[in-house]
Amino acid sequence: MDVREFEIPGVKLVIPKRFGDHRGFFSETWSDRAFRQQVADIGFVQDNHSLSAQKGTLRGLHFQKPPSAQGKLVRVVRGAVFDVAVDIRHGSPTFGRHVSVVLDAREGAQLWIPPGFLHGFCTLEDDTEFLYKVTGYYSAADDAGVAWDDPDLGIDWPVDEATAVLSDKDRKHPRLRDLPPIFAYEA
Fold it and tell me: What does pTM read for this prediction?
């Protein structure tokens, strides 16, 4: 696998190798040994799969509070998304900054988002399927989020408020500045 770093340490683009011929391709999309050696020495406990029927569906910005904080390894298996990770570790030199990348089924790249980051995505095609491995089990009591359109974050989403397809929950998240410190930065 090819692993690429971003300006925000910890978030990584993971590109599995694909071996193709006239029949299609083969790709090893997950290897515990390779992930622990090249990305993060962490284990996963749950896989999730979502389908977004309509282009412009926006999910996020989500996180889980400790003790249920989650790291996520995300990928698209059909369609494409604009994917975002925002650093919310207080004391971090990149607090409030984000990484964004287009993930699609054609390339098969994956994004590693460690605990202490918000995560969200917007679909770029109808019928987009999104898979993610998580390091912690879902906890409704620890489920939280930040407004996807928080102007302090400066995310250039590919949709606006009028065209974004959102859940009621995602319409009601607070701005980042209104959250108490939840994650602490550890150098």
Answer: 0.94
User: Which sign does the torsion angle of CA 108, 113, 53, 158 carry?
Assistant: negative
Q: Which of 98, 94, 23, 32 is nearest to 60 (CA)?
A: 98
**Which CATH code for domain 2-175?**
2.60.120.10
Query: CA separation (Å) from 51 to 59, 78, 92, 97, 129?
Result: 11, 9, 33, 28, 5
The active-site residue, picked from 62, 98, 119, 173, is: 62
Q: Which of 49, 132, 137, 138 is catalytic?
A: 132
pLDDT digits (tens, 9 = 90+) for 74-86: 999 999 999 999 9
Is residue 62 part of the annotated active site? The answer reads yes
Evaluate whether 59 touches 167 at the Cβ level (below 8 Å): yes
For the stretch 88-140, pLDDT in tens is 999 999 999 999 999 999 999 999 999 999 999 999 999 999 999 999 999 99
- The answer to whether the CB of 4 falls within 8 A of the CB of 16 is no
Q: Where are the domains of the chain?
A: 2-175
